[in-house]
Request: fold
Amino acid sequence: MNSPAPHPSTQSPAAGLEGSRGARLLVVDDDPDMLRLLSMRLTAAGYQVTAVTSAESALTQLEIEHPQLVLSDVRLPGRDGLALFDEIRKRHPTLPVILLTAHGTIPDAVEATSRGVFSYLTKPYEGRELLDKIAQALALAAPTEAPGKGGDESWRVEIVSRSNRMAELLAEARMVAKSDASVLLRGDSGAGKELLARAIHRASARASKPFVAVNCGAIPEALLESELFGHVKGAFTDAVANHKGLFQQADGGTLLLDEIGDMPPALQVKLLRVLQERAVRPVGSSQSIAVDVRIISATHRDLDAAMEAGQFREDLYYRLNVVTLSLPPLSARREDIPLLANHFQQRLSTKYGKRLSGFAPEALKALTMASWPGNVRQLFNVVEQVCALSSSPLIPLALVQRALRVPSVEVLTYAEAKQRFEREYLVGLLKLTDGNVADAARLADRNRTEFYRLLQKHELTPGHFKAEGVSQTGESGR
Reply:
C-alpha cells in the first residue's frame, strides 16, 4: 500500500519522551518505505522498534516479546489493522494501540476508538503529533520492564519469569497498583498469589506501610474474628490483654486475605461491614476504630459457583472483586521452569552449604516436562530435595526423577536399544534350548553359521547355557 509520508517534525525527536524513553514499540505497515521511515524516526526518538509487515507477523511477534505499544496501519494484507486490534484486545487487554489511517478509513478508526483503540492519526500527519500521541499512550499504559533492559524492577523482585503471559499479568498488576482498588487474585494453589500481592503492595503508594497476610482457611472460625478485628481485655476467657487485629496492624498498608473462599459465612457479614464503614470493632468492644487498608484477596476456589451454592455472599464478592488478576499455572508457562529451577538451586546451594553448578541437561528437561499440579511451590520443594541429596556438583536425572516420584527411565539410542534387544533375545533362546545351537538357530529362523556369528558378536558361549548333567559332546558344543 502506498501512503503519503508524514511531514517532518519541527521539534526535537526526544521532546516529550522523558517518561517513556527506551520503550518497546511494535510497528505494523505493509509499505516497506513507510515502515523504514517510521522505524528510523522512532528509533531516533529513543524507542526500541520492532517492524513487521502484516497482522499475522505482529501476532507472532507478540508471542516472542511484549511491547509497550502497537502502532499499526489500518490497511494491511489479509487481516487488517482493525482485526489486528481486536485480536490484541483479546490477548493483551492493557496494551495500547494507535492506528494510522487514510481518509477513506476514518469512520472505521473512529469506531475503533469506541472499542478501545487509544487513538488514530490521519495521513499525512505531523511527526510531532505522532510522537506526542505515543508519549501520551505510554504515560497512561501499564509500565513494563523486561529483565535486563533497564527500569526499576524492585517491586517484582520475588517473581522470576520470562513468560509473555506473566509479563502481561505483571503489567496489569503494576497498573492496578497505582490505584487503591480492591484486587481479587485467582489461581491454583502454589501458583504464587501471595508473591503477586506483595509485588502490588511494593508498587503502590502504600509500599512504606505494612503488608499483612492471613490465610482465612487456616485459622479456626472461633479465632479468626479476633485475629482479623482484634479484641479487648476480658472479651473471652483467654483475652488477658487488648489485642490489635490484622486490620489495625495493616493500617495505612495492604491486607491480603488469602483463601477468602474459605471464610465462614458469619465472618463474611462482619468483613463486609468493615469494608463499607472502613472501621473495625474489636471483639468485646463497643467502639469502632477507623482503618485505612487496601484489600487484596486470593482464592483457588470458583467463587461464582460458591455464590450460586450460597456459600459466599454476592455483595462481599463485588466489594472484593473490583479488579481480577488470574495467575497461570506453571504448566502454562513452561519457559519459566528452567529459570525458576536454577534460581531456586542457587538460593538453596547457599542454604545447604553446597557448591552446586546446576542441573544435568536431561534433569532440566525432566523438570520442564513434568506436570506440576502443585505449581511453583511444588517446583521449589523438588529443587530443595535434590539440592539436599545431591553428592555431585551437577544434579543428575535420577535425583530429579526420585523427587518427582516418577520411575527411572533409561534413554537409549536406537543402536544401543537394538544391540540390547539382540543380546537379550539370544540369551533367551540359549536358555530355552539348553545351549543347543541347532535348536536355537532353528527357532530364530537363521542358519547355524549366521547364528554363530551373532553369538560371537555378543561374546556368548553356548556351553555356558548347557543344563547340568547333559554331555559336553552333545549338540550344544558344536
